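REQUEST FORM: STRUCTURE PREDICTION
Request ID: SP-0412
Submitted by: Lab K.M.
Chain count: 1
Length (residues): 167
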Amino acid sequence: MKIEVKEFKNSIQPSPYLVVSCHNEEGEYNALAVAYACNCSFDPPMVMVGIVPSRYSHNMVKETGEFVVNLTSEELEEEFNYLGSNSGRDEDKLEQLELDYIEGKEVSAPILNDFPVNIECKVIDSIKTGSHEMFVGKIEYIHCEEELVSEDGKIDFGKMNLLYGRK
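STATUS: Completed
RESULT:
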C-alpha cells in the first residue's frame, strides 16, 4: 500500500552532495555546499547547480559566469558540512579548511584538489525556480584522479565513495 508523502523538499534522492567553487571579479575565491544539482544535457555536456540568491557565492557566479563542480567523497564530509554552514562573507573558507586549490584551466574559479573530480563550467543560462537560481553550466574541462578513470576515458563512479544525502 502507498501513502501520501507530505515533504517534497528532497523528492529525488539520493544524489551526491557537491561543492561549487567560484570567484568574483576581484579574484576572491569561495566555495559552498550544494545539494541541488544534476546533469542537464549530454550534447553539449552541461550540468545545473542550484544556489540560493542570498548566498555569498550567488553573486560571484552571476558576475563572472563561471563555477567548478567538485564531487565530494565521504572522506570530505566534515569539509562539506563546514562549507555549507559558514559564509564567505565572514571568512576565507578555503584558507580556514586549508584546502589545496589551483585556478582552473578553462575558467578562473578554483579547482579544489582535495576533491576527486572537478568539473569546470561556464554559465550559459539560469532560471529562478523559487528558493534557488539554477545555473546551467557548459562543461569545459574535467579533472579527475587517475585511478577513477576507466580504460575508455570515463569517470568510474563505482570506484568513488561519494557523499550522499542521508535525510
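NOTES: The longest helix spans residues 56-64.
Reviewed by: T.R.
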